[in-house]
């Protein structure tokens, strides 16, 4: 019996063969199936920032007769998802020996999708901003805090003036107060962006701070405040699963910064490591 493949699975299978404009449409379809099912091709094109003809050409590239057939496929898949919503998690019902490869292949797909979605010019500009910024701030609460921690620690290995904004009023006020036009704020928004994150981003924007956002949805409200926004992850992934792609992407950003002046950053990392080593030696001496 032939296994049914959803339209989003078909898109993922053909993703690498699509043009850059069609890939934008593809990712939007994967992330926003309900919008595709209820809006016209023209409306979808405006939301994505491409022409209606690009949306139609994407449908043809997927061997569909047009946008109407895409909507029908999406509606059929959404109905199927509802019917399966009460069933066990797919990983639980699979044989245990397949779990490892299934999970890690999903992570690989998430990273590969992110590579295709990243705008190279925006990436290069962000790397330049990280290198030139006097102060770096990292914001990420709740499920986004893991990536925010990772980015803060990785940046802190190579340079000074890296601060992670903590979720308490006093810390937030202090950090925003020290921001200026020489500052760069990273906003990690891998879950539903709540008012506290948007408020901080708005206040930073009012101080002419450059803002780079990392999110798992192209429609995230953080886009209203970010100078550059990067979308990471893959279809229907939870925030926890998206973290893998986000970590990989932020690692690439840091490596890009280091490449701007490898000698300077490597020297700082060595000096920082030596200080930590001396500190640990003193701590062990006290115990003895």
From TrEMBL:
CDD domains attached to this UniProt entry: SIS_RpiR (cd05013)
Gene Ontology BP, a term: carbohydrate derivative metabolic process
Keywords: DNA-binding, Transcription, Transcription regulation
GO MF: carbohydrate derivative binding; DNA binding; DNA-binding transcription factor activity
Superkingdom, taxonomy of origin: Bacteria
UniProt key word ATP-binding: no
Name assigned to this protein: MurR/RpiR family transcriptional regulator
Record domain SIS: where: 126-263
Organism: Lysinibacillus antri
Domain HTH rpiR-type span(s) in chain numbering: 5-81
């Amino acid at each position: 019996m032939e296994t049914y493949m959803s339209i989003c699975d078909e898109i993922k299978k053909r993703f690498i063969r699509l043009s850059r404009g069609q890939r934008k449409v593809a990712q939007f379809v994967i992330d926003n199936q309900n919008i595709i099912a209820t809006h016209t091709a023209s409306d979808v094109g405006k939301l994505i920032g491409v022409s209606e003809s690009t949306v139609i050409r994407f449908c043809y590239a997927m061997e569909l007769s047009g946008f109407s057939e895409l909507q029908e496929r999406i509606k059929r898949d959404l109905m199927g998802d509802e019917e399966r919503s009460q069933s066990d998690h797919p990983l639980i019902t699979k044989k245990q020996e397949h779990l490892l490869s299934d999970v890690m292949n999903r992570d690989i797909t998430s990273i590969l999708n992110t590579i295709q979605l990243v705008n190279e010019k925006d990436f290069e500009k962000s790397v330049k901003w990280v290198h030139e910024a006097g102060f770096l701030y990292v914001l990420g609460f709740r499920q986004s805090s893991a990536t925010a921690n990772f980015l803060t620690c990785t940046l802190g290995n190579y340079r000074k003036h890296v601060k992670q904004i903590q979720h308490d009023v006093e810390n937030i006020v202090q950090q925003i107060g020290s921001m200026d036009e020489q500052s760069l704020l990273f906003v990690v928004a891998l879950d539903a962006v709540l008012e506290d994150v948007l408020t901080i981003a708005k206040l930073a924007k009012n101080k002419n701070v450059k803002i780079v956002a990392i999110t798992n949805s192209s429609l995230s409200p953080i886009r209203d405040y970010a100078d550059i926004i990067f979308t990471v992850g893959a279809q229907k992934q939870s925030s926890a699963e998206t973290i893998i792609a986000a970590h990989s992407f932020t690692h690439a950003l840091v490596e890009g910064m280091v490449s701007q002046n490898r000698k300077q950053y490597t020297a700082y990392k060595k000096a920082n490591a030596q200080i930590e080593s001396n500190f640990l030696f003193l701590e062990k001496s006290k115990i003895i």
